[in-house]
Amino acid sequence: EPEESYFKWMELKRVVHPKGTEIVVDADYRKFYLVDKEKFENSVVPPSSIKGEGDTDLTGEIQDKKLLWDPTPAADHKIVFNPNDSVAIAFHGLNREETPYVVAKSCFRDWVFGEENDRVADAKTAFGTLLQSRGFSYAARTAGMMMVAGLLYKFGFGDGALALATPMVFGAQAACCLVYEYKDPYGEYKTVTIMDVRAWRYNTEIIEVPREAVLPDGSMELRVRSSKKHTLGFIGCVQEEALRKLDQRSYREEKITL
After folding, report:
1. Does residue 248 sit in helix, strand or coil?
2. Which stretches of the chain are assigned E, i.e. beta strand?
3. pLDDT band for position 61 (50/70/90)?
4. Is the separation of the CB atoms in 172 and 139 below 8 Å?
5. pLDDT digits (tens, 9 = 90+) for 92-113
6. Considering only Cβ atoms within 10 Å of each terminal Cβ, which end of the chain, N or C, has fewer?
7. pLDDT class for 114, splitting at 50, 70, 90?
8. What's the Rg (C-alpha) of the chain?
9. 3-class SS at 228?
């Protein structure tokens, strides 16, 4: 992608926790939960329906709770997003008196040329794929505009030349995210969080949803919108009381020397 990242410092920690448990982080990476894997699976409420583009029924794609812990993109059980795609996800049987937490497993597909298992070793094919990629077109467009701006600046157009290139440069900085929204009683969607999907393997994360997202009949409808090529490998819901009972603190942190 046409961007750069910098680190001021880095620290590596190892978390030692009991066998059969798993650490799940929230979407903002500010909280984490240590849960018994089997009990957590049993507490998750699967979606009653998932509708994709054109009202396509995708409910059966990612309902299996065993998909929750698989770190690699499954060949048959996933929902594939292209840029600007969205899905509507409905849950039923929820308790309005408890905060709902969405459990989602997702990955960013633009890290590789296609899915990991579909990569081709042929260099010619890979180069052709690169030329056709959206990221390459953004980078090429940005580089072209900067060259034009540089020439105009050299021939006396001053700061106006830089102003010409600015919209193109910032337009190329497309975020990699999944936007999670819930539908309120009036049918309007409200943003819950924007999840930055960066990993090439699946990340399983917990998203706290406002309690008012659960309607009087115990239903909740979410919309997930994609900015780029992402994959959703699982989604479900666990409620506040169940999560509180599941969350353990029997772990040990160890600092690893780099």
Report:
1. strand
2. 12-16, 21-26, 32-36, 49-51, 79-81, 86-91, 100-108, 177-183, 189-196, 203-208, 220-226, 230-239, 252-256
3. confident
4. yes
5. 999 999 999 999 988 776 654 4
6. C
7. very low
8. 22
9. coil
Q: Is 70 helix (H, G, I), strand (E, B) or coil?
A: coil
Residue 218 Ramachandran class (φ > 0 left, ψ -120 to 50 alpha, else beta): left
In angstroms, the first-to-last Cα distance of the chain is 28
Rounded Cα distance between 36 and 20, Å, is 6
C-beta of residue 197 within 8 angstroms of C-beta of residue 224:
no
CB 192 within 8 A of CB 180: yes
Residues constituting the chain: 258
Q: Which residues pair with 107 in a beta bridge?
A: 231
How far is it, in rounded angstroms, from Cα 106 to Cα 207?
12
Cα 218 to Cα 200: distance, rounded to the nearest angstrom: 35
Q: Name the one residue in this structure whose structure tokens are 């830089």.
A: 162
Nearest CA to 116 out of 250, 231, 240, 249 is that of 231
Q: Could you tell me the sign of the dihedral formed by the alpha carbons of 96, 220, 199, 242, in that order?
A: positive
CA 224, 241, 91, 202 torsion-angle sign: positive
Q: With beta carbons less than 8 A apart as the criterion, state whether 149 and 159 touch.
A: no
Nearest Cα neighbor of 133 from 229, 235, 232, 208 is 229
The two structure tokens encoding residue 74: 């499954």
Q: Find the Cα–Cα–Cα–Cα dihedral 153, 155, 158, 161, rounded to 10°.
A: -40
Amino acid at 258: L
Upper half-sphere CA count for residue 35 (Cβ side, 13 Å): 24
